[in-house]
Give the backbone structure.
Amino acid sequence: MIPYGRQTISEDDIEAVASALRSNLITQGPVVEVFEHRFAERVGAKYAVAVNNATSALQLAMRVAGIGQGHRVVTSPITFLSSANAAVYVGAIPDFSDIDATSYTLSPAALVNNWKPDTRAVVAVDYAGQACDLPEISRVARARGAVVISDACHAVGGGFHAAGDGDRTWCLGGNPWADITVFSFHPVKTMTTGEGGMLVTDRKDLADLARSLRSHGMVRDAARFETPDDDPVLGEKGPWFYEMQSLGWNFRMTEFQAALGLSQLSRLDSFLARRREIVATYNAAFSDLEWFRVPRLRHLADGDTTSWHLYTAQVDFPMLGRTRTQVMAELALAGVGAHVLYIPVHLQPWYRKNYGYRPGMCPVAEEFYRRALTLPLYPMMSEVDVAQVISAVRALAPAVTNAVAAAA
Ligand SMILES: Cc1ncc(COP(=O)(O)O)c(C=O)c1O
């Protein structure tokens, strides 16, 4: 079965991990630091903080941005659970605003209409790898006193063109509109560390706090110690000394994950190029199907910097005369593992029970979900795999002809 996504691991990756495992230190150490520097450089940001996964990075982002009790955090319903759960972890109320019907990312207009007075952060998700309209989202958020946390988990290595704002292409991570950006290195993402995540920012104070909170809120830098030298018990501060200055967690990345990350980072651009090539082949092969809408780009005219994590089509299942479950079963018989990403988060039972969220709250997202079908996309797909997906999808079409004939 061709899966909807999977990692691309080379012998170099395996060697990098093995060599990290042969060293004395295997949890967070110098390799993590090198990975952070190289990653910050690649995305054009000043500081990067590596963590055990992006869910932790989002939780850290909330804390360092000062989000907590009594605040609201708004995000897109078309995302993985973590984008919203992170707000709950710090005691804030997660809120949802509808998506734009073209890019499937947060609609700035809907954001304005749904804005609530206590909203202190917007988590802007780059669904499928396409950057959301960060400049506009940021203008809406900052004018109302909220911070922008860019959830670029789908978009490692991606960028966007901002007309009128320097008229240039910006990286996700290194841009003036997000206060903090978060990336995921889960195996199906555009590069992997097994599990892993990165928080990036241009603000040193936020990066320093994130670094401390990822390791129990500990501080080892003597210049930042709070304990006075004349403290009767802790006055002597030798090389062993550390202080816990806030309540943090253990969100550390290991050396062998960072070694894998460094090795993958050196091939990120080739991964992205292959993903774009497959998307172009799919789009050309499916463009004539009446019942199938290929993913669309907001910035197509400005050059494609989308990092294409997912290929999610909009399928008219009633026109095909079958349910989505039936269509996925037919694709599976042809060896194609399709998926549905995502179930709108506000409609998850936990969110309905705790916040009273109901269908109808985000109509564009709910309609997107009814039609969504995610097809396989990953760099290791061969031409034969791509052709197999195309022919399995196109083979769904004769049923349309049959259904039309039967109805006549
Ligand atoms: C949009 C989005 N945000 C956050 C996450 C959480 O990432 P991780 O699995 O690294 O915790 C994911 C992962 O699937 C995601 O897709």
Summary: The mean pLDDT is 95. The two ends are 37 Å apart (CA to CA). DSSP finds 15 helices and 14 strands in the chain. The first strand starts at residue 47 and ends at 51.
